[in-house]
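go over this chain:
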Amino acid sequence: MTAAQALPGNPNLDRASSAGGRAIVHRTHGNTHGPITRLVSPSDLGEFLKPFIFLDLNSFSPGLGSQGFAMHPHSGIATLTFVMTGNLRYEDTTGKKGVLPAGGVEWMRSGNGVWHIGAPVGDLQMSGFQLWVALPPSEENAHAESLYLAPSDVPHEGPARALLGSYGKAHSPIPAPSGMNYLAVRLKDGERWRYTPPAGHTVAWLAVSAGRLDVNGMVGTGELAVFEESEQAIDFVAHGDTSFVLGSAVKHPHDLVMGYYSVHTSKTALALGEAEIQRIGAELRRDKRIG
């Protein structure tokens, strides 16, 4: 039984008492392969956290040059890469390319199909989170678009930076589908913080990249915690200087129909996206940009 299958109504879950706040119903350290730790996939926790359907925590050692993610395709989703340390080289088939420093954000709405690359550059450890967001039918086969934000372009309020959506007066400039927030948060040792999700945001989770959080149960470095579905606020206490990402959203109401690099809401939409991926791939092979 997968972690996702165990979630609904299982009395044996690692559940904190909801008397002191919103309960944790599942926690995981994911699966690590080399520099990549996969915390969420569309076929497991993504079914319960949608529109958040995929999350990797990446950590590439310095001096590895081209190691990273070679040119590869997507359709039906949007990806958001948040660079925590180091520098990320990017290029995509919308024609954009460059380097994102620590604190920068890459937003790629793949829509009907796109190819892109991401790789560490320089002599610094490159680490970050990559998130996949399921798109609604109105966007899943739209034209591809990308947006790259320098650290100074990511708005913040208090300890939270708004990567997607809004927190207080901080409104992300990224044109993400409505009904979702994705925040990067830093708390000092002993600092307390409360997150009150917007109305309808019954989906909520967090992933810790450094330190530990007491959040109606202790969550440590490299761990992802899933909260019960409700609109209740979440209270945090940092144990050590702590950094983490937090997602909340209105539940994505559509099915997840999966291809190898794609996730759509129907087989028809998936077929359209995969056809566009193949078309772009043929152009890239003709131009000898991929093998």
